[in-house]
Amino acid sequence: MSIKREYGEVQPGIPLGPLTLRLPGIHYRFEIADYLQGLLMCTVCLAIIPVLTGKLGMSFEVALAIVILNGTLYLAHVTFGDPVVPGWVTPAIPLLVAYCETFAPGVERMQSLIAFELTFGLFCIFLGVTGLAKKFVAIIPNAVQSAILVGAGFAAVMLVFKPGEGLKSFDSNPWTITICIGIAFLILFSESFKQLRRKNKLLYYIGNLGMMPALALAIFVGPMLGELPWPTYDTNIFTRPDFTTLFRDFTMMGAIPLPPLKMFLTGLPMVISAYIVVFGDVIQSQALLNDAQKYRPDENVDYNPNRSHIIFGARNTIMSILGPDISMCGPLWAAMQVVVCERYKHGPKAMESINGGAGSFRWGTWTGYFLAPIVSTVKPILGVGLASTMLIQGYVSVRVGVLKSRSFNDLGIAGVAGAILATRGAAWGLGAALVLTGLIYAGGKWKKAYEPEEPIFPCDSPEKIAQDIKEIMENEQ
Question: Which helix or strand (DSSP H or E) is residue 19 part of?
């Protein structure tokens, strides 16, 4: 039986030190609407499978096992007191792909991924336990943060279009990807569509689904254009993930030796780059929940960035051992967090607690991974889905990265260092950004690397720029 919340209080739960245990049906109401939407949106999570099969040499069934493991750990956030919809560290995916490709395929490449994800996870846990997260990011100059985001955007686009080395899905499916990415950009970023969705309820709900309508369209457009096969189905109701092969051939519990110390050290620039991206997601989580809180005085939404760091840090640490994953374990799926928060604003009848909405959604995606008809339907378009995700992420990362710059000098550094990062990797890009920042801001001007020097967009007020960032991040996967 569900435990009722007193008006204006935090949702009931069992204190566990910095964490709070909450179970569906006991500590929060199970929300059917969010659960059903999760069943539909699990297809986005499956889009990482082509990267796992193409870059790490896994079979589809092994890659599906990794998606299921990651999806199971998504449930940890609401279960242990973090009222968010977690997701990938999407902007850092192309950077991690480029980093891993500097190592030989097979054992060495898996070791590099394990070393990175283990270091990244432990680093996030350390910052969460000590409360040093905000202080760490504060020491990174604006230009360096901008360079990492801009470089991630460049790398995402290159991953799709680089001849012979990218995802190889664009050359095989150019028209399907072009049509679907066009629809996705229209839904996510078009000012005209934003105006239409305010007036039309159907378009409003379509807009809330993010890139899902474009992926659904690809299921029909690809086969009709002769670029993709139609989905095929068998008599199986449930999927068959291959955990045995995953643990035996791709983890330290089987054929992969403990990575050497050198790999942990060479992965540090990639860890810092990924963390700068992750910290932005933490800030975005706080902003979205604060905004939702204004509409719901009946619940005191308890969001703690340190607790979030501990949870997603633990997820990365666990995945590095059980199923190393290029998508990584991030603190937020911004687009779906926006959707949950919007429904939450409509009052207790629509959603009793923000924990119920976020938790039920992730229970829905988790269920979808096991349903063979859903996975079989989207299997032919996973490459298209990933290419579309990377192009959208490239667009978002460049825009947010540019807005991170606080002067023309910052923007110049970001452009040069970002291009180096995209073409030569995180270590080169991060090093270039730091050297250029040191040279340009040397001689008593170092404080300007952290403070506004002159606005890049003089016609825009800080409030307008802040609103632009919020709108962009709301559309991010």
Answer: strand 19-21
